[in-house]
Design goal:
The protein is an alpha/beta fold. The chain contains 12 helices and 10 strands. The strands form 2 sheets. A 7-stranded mixed beta sheet has the order 3-2-1-4-8-6-9. It has a 3-stranded mixed beta sheet with strand order 5-10-7. It is globular, with a radius of gyration of 20 Å. The chain starts with a helix and ends in an 11-residue tail after the last helix.
Amino acid sequence: MFLEIYISFFSILLLVYFIGWRKNSTKNQSKLGGTYQASTISVIIPFRNEAHNLPKLVDSIKKLSIQPLEIIWVNDHSEDKSIEQLTNISENQKIISLINEEKGKKIAIRKGLEVAQGTHILTWDADISVDADYFKALEQIQIAELTILPVRMTGNSFLGFLYELDYYFLNALNVGLTGFSNPIVASGANLLFNKASFLAIDSFEYHQHIASGDDHFLLHDFKKAKKSIQTVTHSNLVVETQSPTSLKEFFHQRLRWISKSKHAMDTSTTWISFIGIIYTMGFVVLLFTNHWKEILILKLLFDFLIFIPYLDIVQRKKISWTLPWFTLLFPVYFLIIGGLATLVKPIWKGRK
């Protein structure tokens, strides 16, 4: 009986997910009119101790077929040779630095906003690379007050592929949820928003004591203010970053994400998290019944249906062979990360 209920319930949710995906790909969510123009976009790139990553990003910026209005690099007290990697940047780029007690990505973005001249702000992380036709593709996109853009997290090993899948799972769901105007995640590694809208609704004073979470709180503010939000799935707008290279790095990254998300939970996010727990724990329970073969096949089918469209967007369908392993190992990871979230305070860039 439990098996039939489980299958029926999540089959309905899967259908709803695909309806949302379809709605997201066909409807125009713009309330501002027109398409984006690179000449109105200020790019803000916060960085701290990224000397080993910056050459890749600088090189990909040089290769852009269309340049944005400006690129603002914000140095967050780097202690390595990051600044030296930016000595040959072009005239439309500038470097500013946080001073004294100013620190953290949230402060860096707001310092960049103080000097930004663009109507729209695009935030990139310092450890990414971008496609040469990025802004050419962006100029085909309808304007919304917040545009969530795709990120490819590339691994180079079996574990790295599993880390990728864990990242893509929530982002794939996010596309379907945006179809119902209810996204739950946004990555500051590739995020575009209207400057005036942000300044009007920014709730920074309520979360400035929390070290990370710039993207999560920004999304929460835009949802709360009922601003137009879209999730874009254009392959040329994918930025690429490196997947964690060790279990320690992976768990610290995921713990950072969990720690920031719990501070801005809305009703829909809470319900989706609850459904996710039921989905995972129900699978674990059913594995210890006589129906373990059926539930394993069905769970794998569900995961394939969710993953494959998004893997196509980020051009990573070649790692789909690791999906059966992800299906089996995810419940174990789910329990471990849940336990660690209550015991460990994550560290990033030498800061807690």
